[in-house]
């Protein structure tokens, strides 16, 4: 899949990204969580007619859904981030709906931007059935797209209002979930939607999630404060989890998933991952929903945390897979580290290095660049003579050591090229017994298309 | 200077880098420092015949030259970095020669690499006239090029030895300096050579310097420990400066020059800046050279430090100008910061952002990306509502505010495009009165050519 062009005196091979449409596929209706109505509509934020740009997710469960979030740590937080954070705090970790728009980030939009984000919240609140909750607002809001432009708010308001009419498209079937996922997309080439069925204490639960990424992807999110990239994600489950435990599980999961991916090393003003747990499938005790809680049901909580983490990894990997211009999917593992944080920092540095990523694009086993990137992180006690680097093919053939205990191997370049020509491969950097901690990062390559997409994004 | 190609369904405009040859020009012989013999030769590290790959710089001054250096902070320091650091320490800041090779970095080359670096030192030592110095070695060594491959050391040794014969090319005229600068080059498109005449306490001195860069450029060097990128630079002066004062002046200068530029955000295993001060033009007192010293001649030292800093900025800017694939030269100024360090970190983050740099390439005034990059640095007390961003044209026409006190301006896109279509322009980010400190960074854009050059560097 490549074509050759002559450029001035030199020749450029423009390698196309591999086809990605197959990463989106129909999912069984039974795998979606109970008690949610969702849709995606065309409100008019995006110019092209019929391109979906507003997603709505509404919990219809009687149980007030617990909600948790990880937000960008960027100093210039977009209005929807500020508003969602505020609502989550006011409601002590409860929310009943999520509204999302793509096409405009509502970031660095001054006072008008705050008004617009609140307008989206209030309009979505108006769609909800009456509840006994004392909370004033029930909806969390996310936006993604261009920074520094105001939302066409009257179009968005009108779009949300259309869901109060009999003609509304809010539903719970696969195609409704698919529409919602589509409305998240910006430069994404396929909607990112996954679902999962799991069991805790004999009860079956489900979770579904959608996210979007493509560019500005290098999240760094924490509890109520931590992503970098316009990465938006929303996970919905019909399990019942207490708000604090839900936040703890999400924080753990995000660190090992969305905070362990990089497309271009950019932290966005809007990065947000939300999770709602509406308890629609929860077992009841004396007619009341029992929430999974870290304090009272450690075992159940650990299962939930593990399921959420695996699911978040799956969603996060889709973002890398669809990274702007990406032709490769690379797993970077750093082991033998004294702490998880150090392993994570080194994996992150390798995953964001422009030189490493252009070498991936060129299918060049340039391990010197990998080592050079790793070495820019200061690691107390690191002995370069103990460090090893190995390339790991994804096709179950033999791995290829290129550096063993600080000494370069005589590398079979043909074999190296063979591994790097795969769409998926891995790299392992072993720090040589500084400790037993390890971290994994997922990244893509840096191609001509990344430059093309971002050299002319606004027009 | 652009051509259009059709790529699958989309069209790519491959914009060529502007011509850069005019940044190299003949310099007056009188502007070069006295007491140095220099040359560049083809030893055979590079395959193409007649391409220069080894530079030699020898001080012929009776006064033992003071030497100072800033080295990479990378954990995987190349052999020449380790060796030069050791010699500098052993000699208490004195050295009489410098040997440089391009084409192979001698990095991550294990024990053989160390032996090779020492061999380069010993061979160059053998060229020097006898001296009364008790030091065992007199030569500092630098290498740049591919990581993880051993030097063709016998070719290099033979090349250095050729300078002990009557046919040697070591000389002090412009063309000898030009040859030395040429031998530094890797993917550089022009040799980077500058000279300068200055006066301290009525005595006229000179300095000349050469450097190389192109890729892996984001230095972070400190006293005997601080660059990131394969940036090599060497500054020679005929002033006499005491070793400690020379190191202090260099550390200050490097922070505000080589540590304030970025091509691709990569810290190299080899980054090194050296300075020799051989005192060949120094005033003598009772027949003895008097060295400029911070303690005994504060005023003279400050003049020297200022001259060295301005000169280092000039050399550093040439590296950005010739950044791999660069079509733009952008000055990033951050002001109103509480400390220089914070201003420097924000300027650095903006200067390394792939999204900001691809927008520069696309001549897109996407200030949202600038702000988003700035915001990823944590600044205590920062109030987003006080922040302003301005585009500064280099042609003395009016500047263009795009964000004023946190509120986006209604930007004249035609005017914005006009500024960004210049080869040189600037950006000012004002943090809004958090303090009075400021920092300046120089960066380039991120183009198709960067990907082309680095996607296929080794072959």
Automatic annotation (TrEMBL), chains A, B:
SUPFAM superfamilies: DmpA/ArgJ-like (SSF56266)
Keywords for this protein: Acyltransferase, Amino-acid biosynthesis, Arginine biosynthesis, Autocatalytic cleavage, Mitochondrion, Multifunctional enzyme, Transferase
Binding site for substrate: 186, 212, 230, 324, 454, 459
Family listed: Belongs to the ArgJ family.
Major site of localization recorded for this protein: mitochondrion
Enzyme's top EC category: transferase
Keyword Amino-acid biosynthesis (UniProt): yes
Annotated positions for site Involved in the stabilization of negative charge on the oxyanion by the formation of the oxyanion hole: 144-145
Swiss-Prot/TrEMBL site (Cleavage) positions: 229-230
InterPro entries in the record: Arg_biosynth_ArgJ, ArgJ-like_dom_sf, ArgJ_beta_C
PTM: The alpha and beta chains are autoproteolytically processed from a single precursor protein within the mitochondrion.
Subunit structure, as described in the record: Heterodimer of an alpha and a beta chain.
Pfam families to which the protein is assigned, alphabetical: ArgJ
BP terms from Gene Ontology: L-arginine biosynthetic process; ornithine biosynthetic process
Gene3D superfamilies, sorted: arginine biosynthesis bifunctional protein suprefamily (3.30.2330.10), ArgJ beta chain, C-terminal domain (3.10.20.340), L-amino peptidase D-ALA esterase/amidase (3.60.70.12)
Domain of life where this protein originates: Eukaryota
Protein name (database record): Arginine biosynthesis bifunctional protein ArgJ, mitochondrial
Active site as annotated: 230 (nucleophile)
Subcellular location: Mitochondrion matrix
Pathway entry: Amino-acid biosynthesis; L-arginine biosynthesis; L-ornithine and N-acetyl-L-glutamate from L-glutamate and N(2)-acetyl-L-ornithine (cyclic): step 1/1; Amino-acid biosynthesis; L-arginine biosynthesis; N(2)-acetyl-L-ornithine from L-glutamate: step 1/4
E.C. no: 2.3.1.35, 2.3.1.1
């Amino acid at each position: 899949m490549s074509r050759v062009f002559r450029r001035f005196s030199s020749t450029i091979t423009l390698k196309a990204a591999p086809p990605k449409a197959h990463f989106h596929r129909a999912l069984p209706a039974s795998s979606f969580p109970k008690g949610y109505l969702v849709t995606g509509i065309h409100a008019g934020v995006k110019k092209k007619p019929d391109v979906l740009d507003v997603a709505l997710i509404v919990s219809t469960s009687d149980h007030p859904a617990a909600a948790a979030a990880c937000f960008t740590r960027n100093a210039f937080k977009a209005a929807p981030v500020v508003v969602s954070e505020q609502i989550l705090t006011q409601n002590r970790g409860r929310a009943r709906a999520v509204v999302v728009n793509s096409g405009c980030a509502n970031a660095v939009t001054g006072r008008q931007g705050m008004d617009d984000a609140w307008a989206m919240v209030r309009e979505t609140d108006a769609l909800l059935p009456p509840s006994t909750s004392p909370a004033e607002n029930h909806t969390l809001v996310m936006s993604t797209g261009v920074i520094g432009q105001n939302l066409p708010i009257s179009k968005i308001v009108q779009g949300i209002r259309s869901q109060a009419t009999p003609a509304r498209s809010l539903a719970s079937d696969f195609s409704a979930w698919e529409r919602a996922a589509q409305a998240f997309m910006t430069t994404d080439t396929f909607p990112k939607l996954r679902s999962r069925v799991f069991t805790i204490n004999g009860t079956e639960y489900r979770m579904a999630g959608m996210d979007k990424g493509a560019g500005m992807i290098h999240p760094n999110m924490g509890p109520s404060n931590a992503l970098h990239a316009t990465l938006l994600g929303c996970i919905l489950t019909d399990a019942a989890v207490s708000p604090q435990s839900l936040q703890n599980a999400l924080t753990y999961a995000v660190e090992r998933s969305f905070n362990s991916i990089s497309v271009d090393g950019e932290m966005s003003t809007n990065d947000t991952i939300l999770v709602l747990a509406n308890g629609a499938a929860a077992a009841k005790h004396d007619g009341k929903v029992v929430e999974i809680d870290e304090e009272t049901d450690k075992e159940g909580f650990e299962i939930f945390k593990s399921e959420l983490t695996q699911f978040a990894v799956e969603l996060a990997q889709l973002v890398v897979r669809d990274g702007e211009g990406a032709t490769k999917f690379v797993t970077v593992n750093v082991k033998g580290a004294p702490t998880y944080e150090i392993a994570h920092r080194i994996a992150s540095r390798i995953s964001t290095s422009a030189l490493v990523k252009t070498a991936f694009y060129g299918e060049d086993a340039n391990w010197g660049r990998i080592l050079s990137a790793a070495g820019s992180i200061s690691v107390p006690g690191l002995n370069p003579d103990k460090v090893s680097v190995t390339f790991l093919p994804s096709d179950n053939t033999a791995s290829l050591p290129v550096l063993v205990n600080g000494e370069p191997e005589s590398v079979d370049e043909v074999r190296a090229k063979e591994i790097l020509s795969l769409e998926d491969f891995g790299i392992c950097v072993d720090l040589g017994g500084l400790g037993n901690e390890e971290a994994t990062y997922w990244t893509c390559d840096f191609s001509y298309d990344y430059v093309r997409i971002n050299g002319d994004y606004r027009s």
